[in-house]
Design goal:
binds NADP nicotinamide-adenine-dinucleotide phosphate; alpha/beta; Rossmann fold; 9 helices; six-stranded parallel sheet
Length: about 280
């Protein structure tokens, strides 16, 4: 049964829904942002399984929940119960965020644009001059490829172990996207790991998404994995001399785009970044 906790009248409620949900960092990100921006909102983590999708959205309507972050296994499952989708959510057939547009409950996907905002804040890169390799072709890769295409990256090369999924992901990136292989990496300015390899708890030994000899010192290497903050992949890329960035930037920026959709306000990233990296390090 899906239950959102009762709150007093002055508070607006938002929540992350999915299963499992206990280790989600979203409550810490959003409750820190609400506090920082002095908004009288509260954000919960609610366990919702796939077969409770309809009940979840009915409860959102009934309780006037002002926003949802959406994680596995609900990214597709909530879609039939919403009133509409943004163009991005339609293209990706996945929502990571639910918000109200007037009386309509809408689904959006802020992952890819969160990646772009993080990239811009870290590198100040003119994307139309940059060739990027995206390693992996799952949900995260697809949203990143779609947003890179929207932002006219010079070239987007998807490298994935299953060719069929690579083709599907590349098809979202527009005319500048194609599939490729490790041999393409030398010509890339930016290499992005969007596989879960290196994530805490996935393997006893660190596995690299790309053999490190395919990378070089003049590249920027980004891992979408944010726990640990420095993966073995980033550690080895850094030791080559490459510039490296963890998935923390994307994690916070995709959340802040949701915050904006719900509240109409921007939140400052500075205070949030420290709180989240401390929590991950613990
Ligand atoms: P997903 O949908 O399961 O896709 C995983 C991709 O990784 C697939 O393309 C898969 O290849 C590939 N892969 C998995 N194991 C592999 C292996 N042993 N060797 C080679 N390729 C392998 O996962 P996702 O939702 O895209 O998430 C991927 C990662 O991104 C996760 O670690 C997640 O935490 C992270 N993420 C971070 C953020 C952020 O805000 N920083 C946001 C979203 C996701 P096949 O297609 O061949 O199966």
């Amino acid at each position: 049964m899906v239950e959102f906790p009762e709150v007093n009248d002055l508070k607006f409620t938002a929540a992350v829904v999915g299963k499992p949900i206990a280790h989600s960092l979203s409550p810490l990100i959003h409750n820190t942002a609400f506090k920082q921006e002095k908004l009288n909102w509260i954000y919960h983590a609610i366990e919702v399984s796939e077969n409770e999708a309809s009940e979840c959205i009915a409860a959102v309507r009934e309780k006037n929940i002002r926003g949802l972050s959406v994680t596995m296994p609900l990214k597709e499952a909530l879609i039939p119960h919403l009133d509409g989708l943004t163009e991005t959510a339609k293209k990706l057939n996945a929502v990571n965020c639910v918000y109200w547009d007037g009386d309509d409950l809408m689904g959006d996907n802020t992952d890819g644009d969160g990646f772009i905002n993080a990239l811009r804040s870290q590198l100040n890169v003119p994307l139309h001059e940059k060739t990027l390799a995206i390693i992996g072709a799952g949900g995260a890769a697809r949203s990143v490829v779609y947003s890179l295409g929207k932002n006219q990256a010079k070239e987007i090369i998807v490298v994935n172990r299953s060719k069929q999924k690579a083709e599907k992901a590349a098809s979202l990136g527009g005319p500048n996207a194609r599939i490729g292989s490790y041999e393409d990496l030398a010509a890339c300015d930016i290499v992005v790991n969007s596989t879960p390899l290196g994530m805490v708890g996935t393997a006893t030994e660190p596995l690299l998404p790309v053999p490190i000899q395919f990378l070089s010192a003049n590249q920027t290497v980004i891992d979408l994995v944010y726990n640990p903050i420095e993966t073995e992949f980033l550690r080895q890329a850094k030791s080559l001399g490459a510039s490296t960035f963890s998935g923390l930037g994307m994690l916070i920026h995709q959340a802040l785009l949701q915050f904006l959709l719900w509240t109409g306000q921007n939140a400052s990233i500075a205070g949030i970044e420290n709180v989240i990296s401390d929590a991950i390090s613990r």
